[in-house]
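Sorry to interrupt, but I need a hand with the structure work. Could you add the entry underneath, on a fresh line?
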Amino acid sequence: MTAYVFHQPNLAAVVLQEKEFTQFTDLIYRIAGISMSASKKPLVTSRLAKRLKHYGLASYGEYFKMITAASGKSELQMAVDLLTTNETHFFREPKHFDFLRQHILSLRKHGKTVRIWSAACSSGEEPYSIAMLLDEVLGIAPWEIIASDLSTRVLEKARNGLYPMERMLEIPQRYLSNYCLKGTGTQEGTLLIERKLRDRVQFEHYNLTETPPKLGEFDVIFLRNVMIYFDLETKRQVVSRLLSLLRPGGHFLVGHSETLNGISADLRLVQPAIYQKP
């Protein structure tokens, strides 16, 4: 008896051609302002390979046509998510949290709500780390955290607040005890951020290269470990947009491998990677 199956291309042999790589890097730059060097070609290849397999496509060029077609908006978002997702950790760069702890009470001028924006929140570890600190220091005093990212996929993960158990090593013990739940049964091996914190972090979809949504003014803006992917002009535009939402006297935090030298003259350096708006 003879059986017939649909032909599937040999995806293991699919190579990302230079022309195709340029198409994707140009697209990501237009959408997200992210500059990808030639060294990122293996990353683009590996992250998009499963989408080719999913659709049974024989080339990256076919996939590019799919996502740039009028009917490809949802898949375009998927591609952007895959190519722009960055690694993050709980309490990354601890000196920033030490600084926040030392200055947080002074932010409560005239009893106003303390407002903090995590402007490239990825899968949520940064805003939840901030939330743990605010809840511990301020107690019932009012505070708000807005967290935003370009990737809808990581935002959904962030809203769920569910992480692999190995992430507990990044979280101080007192925070684990007060704000984290250990998974059991079918959820064994996972860590869940307690609902009282999840309910206090507002997640928004936002592209840093676009005009910010009307979010109000903030006391502190975190924009860490994302500007390294931008060229100089994009950095200037992104920082300028965000500064329009930073209150006078507010603080602007970048990654320790980043600097605002030559990017903005509207901030003064307080300590490494921490700036203040006059």
Summary: Confidence is low (pLDDT under 50) at residues 1-9. Residues 84 and 256 are 20 Å apart (CA to CA). The chain has two domains: 11-84, 94-160+197-276.
